[in-house]
Design brief:
The chain has 368 residues and is an alpha/beta fold. The chain is 21% helix and 27% strand. Helix 2 (62-68) links the parallel strand 4 (52-56) and strand 5 (82-86). It is elongated. The model has no long low-confidence stretch (mean pLDDT 94). Residues 284-354 form the Glucose-1-phosphate adenylyltransferase/Bifunctional protein GlmU-like C-terminal hexapeptide domain.
Length: 368
């Protein structure tokens, strides 16, 4: 059976979630009550029997390393293969590579030594639950050079504006890659390629002074390469702004959407933290809310997401909000359309109200 090795390339992902990325990269941002953004792509890989994964990081990756540890939660703490966290290491004085090609060049040994026939390159901003073995089967069936994955979105949101879009012919061959704002075929920043071909691409790009592997090796050579488009039809969310984070988090309160992402036969895995079940005091009122373990609730919570260890005091009201780990909402505080990062404290009788289109964001460890 053909094997796949994975590369999660965070180099070109900007930290655009404002207060949520002050102290961490986007891949480490908490999502959906108990997960981090990185959990979804890692789980997709391990569920697809990918057992060798490299992570290209450049900045603010301490929180990410703390979360991932040795990859045990994803069964990647193994003697052969496993999880390789590869921060910048530019020690070669003769290295002329630039952009994300610096990572590919300096870590070319990972690609060459990987016990795999194919390399899957992806980012962390596209939330989905996908079987990469199906992508490989599709890739082999049409004998493609490169297979790129896309989502045909019915409704375009602001987060799609800067995404690459794909023009595809009747044989699912990519004829153009562009940024047309009205186009609905959104490229998910995932491509699959044979190991020998990606090695040639990396070396050729560096020799010609290029900076971006996908743009300079694939987008610029559509006429020479057979670039096949694989359509992903499951639940999808692109998170590249505070607004998109807030809106896509709220969608998970719909049970149908939640079940499309969190499947029994393809679970989303994360770092295990053993805590007591959440406690609902007699006067608490909770409706349409995701509540992680370890919470203590004595107020009213609706249409919200509470991460682990959140405390909601007597008479406090939380609506349409995202409250991250270990936040303390004291008695009679009111929060509406708010995102609280980890370890925040909202004092008694305080009121914070944002807009549905622009939530009020409180950075980590803030006391108000």
């Amino acid at each position: 059976m053909d094997r796949i090795a994975g590369i999660i390339n965070l180099d070109h992902e900007q930290d655009v979630l404002e207060e949520l990325t002050y102290f961490r990269c986007g891949a480490a941002v908490p999502f959906a009550g108990r997960y981090r953004m990185i959990d979804f792509v890692l789980s997709n890989m391990t569920n697809s029997r990918i057992v060798s994964v490299a992570l290209f990081t450049r900045r603010k990756y301490r929180s990410l390393m703390d979360h991932l540890e040795q990859g045990k939660a994803w069964d990647l703490d193994r003697n052969r293969g496993g999880l390789f966290i590869l921060p910048p290491d530019w020690n070669d004085p003769t290295d002329i590579s630039r952009g994300d090609l610096q990572h590919f060049h300096n870590n070319l040994d990972f690609v060459k030594r990987a016990l795999a026939d194919y390399i899957l390159v992806t980012g962390s901003q596209h939330i989905c639950n996908i079987d990469f073995q199906e992508v490989l089967a599709d890739h082999k069936e049409v004998d493609a050079d490169v297979t790129v994955i896309y989502k045909h979105v019915d409704e375009l949101y602001p987060e799609h504006r800067l995404s690459h879009k794909l023009t595809i012919d009747q044989q699912q061959r990519v004829t153009a890659i562009h940024n047309e704002t009205s186009h609905h075929n959104v490229y998910m920043d995932i491509f699959l390629v044979k190991k020998e071909l990606i090695c040639d691409m990396i070396e050729d790009c560096i020799a010609h002074g290029n900076e971006h592997l996908f743009l300079d090796a694939i987008k610029a050579n559509l006429s020479e390469l057979h670039v096949h488009a694989h359509e992903y039809k499951g639940m999808h969310a692109l998170v590249n702004s505070v607004e998109s984070y807030y809106r896509n988090s709220a969608k998970l309160l719909d049970a149908d959407v939640h079940d499309q992402l969190f499947k029994d036969d393809a679970p989303i895995l994360t770092k295990v933290k053993n805590e007591a079940p959440s406690k609902y005091l007699p006067d608490s009122q909770v409706s349409n809310t995701l509540v992680a373990n370890g919470c203590v609730i004595d107020g009213r919570v609706e249409n919200s997401i509470l991460f682990r260890g959140v405390k909601v005091g007597e008479g406090a009201v939380i609506k349409n909000s995202i409250i991250m780990q270990r936040c303390d909402i004291e008695s009679y505080a009111v929060l509406e359309n708010v995102i609280l990062d980890k370890d925040c404290k909202i004092s008694e009788n305080r009121t914070l109200i944002g807009a549905a289109e622009k939530p009020y964001v409180v950075p980590k460890r803030k006391v108000i």
